[in-house]
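Hi R.,

As promised on Friday, here is the backbone we talked about, encoded as structure tokens. Could you run it through your design pipeline when you get a chance and send me back a sequence?
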């Protein structure tokens, strides 16, 4: 969904309610957990966040808050969306004077103990998204070495006519996102989150009430 003005809270929830009834736009659902699908552009970004359990704990909490999307020009919304398979979330971007709403659904969640502690999730695209594909966000703590890493793996290709025509620009934005998301995770795990400025694209909006969510028909559906 493309607009010249910032979408209202109500408009975003109506958008998500409509998208939540629809299926994924690609067939290789869950492929970021194994081998990315053929025929797509594959992107992989990996950065060391630090060492030790405290860094991992901060990184895990950051993913749960969707902090990897708090970049000023892009936002995951609503920011309170729980990290659970089936949850639907909007990715809102503001570039070149335009606002984009993109719909995604969480495909799976990773929460693994063991010698290498892992936490993360992947989401896949729904019909009203400029691209089609899947993206996984993961933090890992190697207990033996102490190292903590942030890892992004994605496969994608254009889905809408506009992005097919502007595919080089779409790829530049994807590259920018990966770079800035990695930098954001380094920052948020290096300092206490309470010390960071709590600014978002939608800071003036209040979360909807339970009644509003029911009225708009927003619901969590299992992946289909």
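Update: got your reply. Pasting your designed sequence below so it's all in one thread:
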């Amino acid at each position: 969904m493309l607009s010249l003005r910032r979408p209202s809270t109500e408009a975003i929830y109506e958008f998500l309610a409509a998208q939540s009834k629809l299926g994924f736009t690609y067939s290789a659902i869950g492929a970021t957990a194994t081998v990315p699908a053929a025929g797509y552009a594959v992107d992989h970004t990996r950065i060391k966040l630090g060492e030790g359990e405290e860094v991992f704990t901060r990184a895990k909490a950051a993913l749960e808050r969707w902090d990897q999307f708090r970049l000023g020009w892009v936002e995951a919304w609503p920011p309170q969306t729980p990290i659970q398979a089936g949850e639907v979330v909007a990715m809102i971007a503001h570039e070149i004077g335009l606002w984009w709403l993109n719909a995604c659904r969480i495909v799976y969640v990773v929460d693994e103990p063991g010698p290498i502690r892992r936490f993360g999730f992947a989401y896949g695209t729904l019909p009203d998204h400029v691209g089609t594909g899947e993206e996984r966000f993961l933090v890992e703590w190697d207990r033996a070495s102490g190292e903590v890493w942030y890892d992004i793996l994605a496969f994608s290709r254009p889905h809408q006519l506009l992005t097919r025509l502007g595919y080089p620009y779409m790829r530049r934005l994807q590259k920018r996102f990966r770079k800035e998301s990695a930098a954001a995770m380094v920052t948020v795990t290096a300092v206490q989150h309470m010390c960071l400025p709590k600014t978002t694209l939608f800071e003036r909006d209040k979360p909807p009430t339970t009644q509003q969510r029911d009225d708009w028909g927003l619901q969590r559906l299992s992946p289909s």
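One thing I noticed while checking it: Confidence is low (pLDDT under 50) at residues 192-207, 218-224.

Thanks again,
M.
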